[in-house]
Specification:
heterodimer, A: about 200 residues, alpha/beta, seven-stranded mixed beta sheet, 8 helices, about 15% strand, globular, B: about 475 residues, five-stranded parallel beta sheet, 19 strands, about 35% helix
């Protein structure tokens, strides 16, 4: 997993609540057995019409948001299915950070396993950033070490993050290798485990 | 102060605990299906790792499998994914209920049927509806593919202990009102984010009186309320359901196991971080009208209007949802005509679901212009239904009777609702495009779906039930 600390980018404002993982990556793209290559299918039914043409109104199709690495959305981002294809698609498309007032649990967990930083800001802060980003391209610097999002206009937003997951992202740790260090504890648990 | 069941199961599964870290939890049962596992097995191979406890894993194919003309799989990509699971199960020594095997079915239907699902277990699966198994008083939750790989390698997961929530359902459910209506009412009342970050225990008189299959329907949709898991304390109903099942404790150990299970029930003096209450007698059969499961209302009501909402973002969400669904503000729910009926999914495809739907359609015909299918949740559910002649009831009424699988709940196989058409569905999600690009999904109970099939539009199923009493 690629470590992450500082990300400088304009934001892509997705002004929607309850963006579910069915929208992030639609079921017809879940049959592949690889982990990569899902970016081109990200938000497929919002990006393309039934003939496969780009829908110009959709934020990711607008020229001014091309190359963004920071997606900003509303409440309850990533709800629904557990499909990790959703963060895979987000990462493969080029995003490293998702900012929202809240995230669905499984999606939130999945981000940490893939080197994506999910940042929770308040609803008012997200509204403010979205508004700025929708008026004009708005660049921010995300600093995980400092736990800040700093706008090009000098505005600083601080965020909280679980220290364990922070270290995991900063170092790009492989969680399975870490857990192998607890082999003795796992064995001990298995020995006393009651099975009927 | 006593403990609730969530705390009891959590505390008994901690392998390692340290301040500033999540807990390392032991996993008792890992259910595996074809869609969310191939990358995990590939990860093991690339790192030269083994499956630590293949004996605690159980795999089946469900999401992709065709529900007719088996064993032919027309879609080459789906076929490859299905074959990949078979190869992985063989390579790593994991028990598999393959297509055509009598144990095959939707993973959340077969776990309980086989008795793999038991009170007090920690159960995970790369599927958000793993919460279904909570009906037995198990701590069961969906995980991503990286966590699937982690469980395969270590039989553990790092988990931060979430706050707990009690949802108490008081009183008695009315005749013709289903478990599905309870959970849809809960989500409609408090929203799809109400449980986010929490584990929910469902309690109260109305929950206690439910069968195991009805409890599974409730716990299944916990994720639609945002909860990490949802469970119900075990009682005699739980014990009776498990007795004699293949993977349940054998006769010699059963009583000891049963008394352990019953001891897991939440203590009378326990507490929760959040408590919500709803009265069962307030609940009527529910139909969703929008594009998330909280957008639902009673069948006797109307589609909301923008004046029902205060914030601009809620008003705009309503407009977006109604535009997608092709509905008008204020339109009566009973005026919504449907073209498809889907009875199936891990929410409502069990024998009792098929029985109630069959009792509604018996001796009647599916309305002209409506295509209705029944997809039993498992091979053995299908066999049991056929034993009772339910297949004939459905076929005589004009339904199709299919093989088991996830089917039109998410439309990964050929069972797709065409764009712009409307489906009364017993599944769990009405997201945009869930059942097919442009498809319009209305979530309902099996009885409501059956009644809609007959009338061609939504109708209060209590009318049918009352006639039969």
């Amino acid at each position: 997993m690629e470590p992450i600390n500082i990300v400088n980018s304009k934001i892509a404002p997705l002004d929607r609540k309850n963006v579910d993982t069915d929208q992030i990556i639609s079921k017809e793209f879940l049959k592949r057995i690889e982990r990569t290559g899902f970016g081109r299918f990200l938000f497929h039914h919002w990006r393309f019409d039934e003939q496969g043409n780009e829908i110009p109104d959709f934020v990711l199709n607008k020229p001014e948001y091309q190359g963004s690495q920071i997606l900003v959305a509303q409440d309850n981002f990533g709800c629904g299915s557990s499909r990790e294809h959703a963060p895979w698609a987000i990462l493969d498309y080029g995003f490293r950070v998702v900012i929202a007032p809240s995230f669905a649990d499984i999606f939130h967990n999945n981000c940490f396993k893939n080197g994506i930083l999910p940042i929770k800001l308040t609803e008012a802060q997200c509204d403010e950033i979205l508004e700025k980003g929708m008026q004009n391209p708005y660049s921010v610097e995300v600093n995980l070490e400092a736990q800040t999002v700093t706008g090009a206009d000098g505005k600083v937003y601080s965020f909280n993050i679980d220290p364990y997951y922070k270290q995991m992202l900063l170092n790009g740790w492989d969680e399975i290798s870490l857990t192998f260090q607890y082999e003795d504890q796992i064995k001990a648990y298995e020995e006393k485990r009651v099975v009927y | 102060m006593g403990k609730n069941i969530i705390e009891k199961i959590w505390d008994s599964h901690v392998v390692y605990q340290e301040a500033g870290k999540p807990d390392l939890l032991y996993i008792d049962l890992h259910l595996i299906h074809e869609v969310t596992s191939p990358q995990a097995f590939e990860g093991l191979r690339l790192a030269g790792r083994k499956v630590r406890r293949p004996d605690l894993c159980f795999a089946t194919m469900d999401h992709n499998v065709p529900t007719k003309n088996l064993p032919t799989i027309n879609d080459p990509i789906a076929k490859k994914q299905i074959m990949t699971l078979a190869e992985n199960a063989k390579e790593f020594g994991i028990q598999l209920a393959d297509i055509g095997h009598p144990d095959q079915g939707i993973v959340h239907v077969i776990g309980p049927e086989l008795g793999l699902t038991q009170p007090g277990k920690t159960i995970v699966c790369g599927d958000s509806h793993t919460s279904t198994h909570g009906a037995f008083g198990a701590l069961a939750f969906g995980i991503g593919t990286s966590e699937v790989e982690h469980v395969l390698s270590t039989q553990t997961l790092w988990q931060s202990k979430p706050p707990t929530m009690e949802i108490r359902v008081n009183g008695k459910l009315g005749v013709g009102v289903a478990a599905k209506d309870i959970i849809l009412a809960i989500i409609a009342k408090w929203g799809i984010g109400v449980g986010t970050g929490h584990i929910v225990e469902y309690t109260g008189e109305a929950i206690r009186s439910l069968s195991m299959e009805e409890r599974m329907t409730i716990c299944n949709m916990s994720i639609e309320a945002g909860a990490k898991a949802g469970l119900i304390s075990p009682d005699q109903t739980t014990v009776d359901f498990l007795r004699g099942r293949r993977f349940a404790p054998n006769e010699e150990n059963f009583e000891e196991a049963a008394s352990y299970w019953l001891s897991l029930a939440s203590d009378a003096d326990c507490s929760y971080d959040v408590v919500l209450e709803i009265d069962a007698d307030e609940i009527e059969p529910i139909v969703t009208w929008g594009t998330n499961p909280s957008m639902g209302t009673g069948v006797s009501k109307t589609v909301p209007t923008s004046t029902d909402y205060e914030s601009d973002s809620d008003k705009s969400a309503l407009k977006k949802a109604l535009a997608y669904m092709g509905l008008e503000e204020g339109q009566p729910i009973s005026s919504i005509a449907i073209q498809h009926v889907f009875i199936g999914s891990c929410t409502n495809s069990r024998l009792s679901d098929l029985r109630i739907a069959a009792s509604i359609v018996e001796g009647k015909k599916v309305a002209p212009g409506v295509k209705a299918i029944v997809v039993p949740g498992s091979y053995s559910t299908k066999a049991a239904a056929e034993e009772e002649g339910l297949d004939k009831v459905f076929l005589d009424a004009g339904f199709e009777w299919r093989e088991s699988g996830c089917s039109a709940c998410l439309g990964m196989n050929e069972d797709i609702i065409p764009s712009g058409e409307r489906c009364a569905s017993t599944s769990n999600r009405n997201f945009e495009g869930r059942q097919g690009a442009g498809a319009r999904t209305h979530l309902v109970s099996p009885a409501m779906a059956a009644a809609a099939a007959i009338e061609g539009h939504f109708v209060d199923v209590r009318k049918y039930v009352a006639q039969e009493v």
